Amino acid sequence: MDTNVNALPSPSWWRMVMIGRRPEWTLVRIVLLVAVCWVVFTRILLPIRVDGTSMLPTYKDHGVNLVNRLAYRRRDPERGDVVAVRTTGVHIMFMKRIIGLPGETVAFHNGHAVIDGKVLSEPYVKGPCDWEWAPETLKPDEYFCVGDNRSMALAGHFFFKAPRSRIVGKVLL
Amino acid sequence: MKKWVWRLVVVMVLAGLGCWGWRVLFPSPEQVIRKRLNHLANAACFSGNEGALVKVAKAQAITSFCTPDVEITLDIPGYGHHEINGIAELLQQAAAARSYREGCNVQFFDIVVNVAPDQNSAIADLTAKGSVLNDKDFNVQELRFKLRKVEGKWLIYHAETVHALTP
Which residue of A85, A88, A160 is in closest CB contact with B110? Predict the structure, then answer.
């Protein structure tokens, strides 16, 4: 009679589902997956939740999005990019659109953004706007960032000049 | 599973526990300051239904984080410019804030601590998020705290708002 004494007993179905046929490889896969997720979601794509209405109608309050931290490694931010600007860290960031680039003069007249004396075409801005803001020239590393919701009162809308070092990345979606 | 894999796992777990234990038993000045500032944020929170004694106790708790000659300069958009000089004025302002607000929640994020080479003074930059209770609007403000070590405790001697992103 020929019997194979080295054959492994077949594992029960629930064990197969939970930890697979070879637990050591399942463990390795879990560790790798956790490591990859950690790297991706802390170094490359930062998950964010939109809090506030300053980017309406492009981005709604409580929406979820991702920030691509690698977007500006090889190039500088461009006009029209929606970017995340950090505070002292990345747990609280401001999501705004860049309308003014370094060295440019930015103003608001009759609700229109004016860059170097020319009215900027902004198809993403919906609704009426009556903002007035005196011309201001940006420093060599400054970007003028503002939200898309220009129906808000100027005093209630937080917009700013952001140094390049504060721009974390480009909003992905 | 192979023996060496188990050994590796055990060594890694022990190393992790060792690092964690070391940090708990011998915290760095940065950790101590972060912890104190988070306690300060907790002390600054209050709800409208607190009793008078609790209000006074919590207001006094805030002063325990500061030196007697503390200077605070706050310039928050929408709330104006405020200056507080000395611990007595701080206690008075903290108690007054509790009496006319319906409640407030304060949280500190991204605390960046730089300790001076002499290990006796430090600067902490952080982002504060404050909101009135039952109100979905909130304020975000960057703050800078200057601390000095007094009898083994890190105490705030200067605090100010920082406007790194200006229109």
Answer: A88
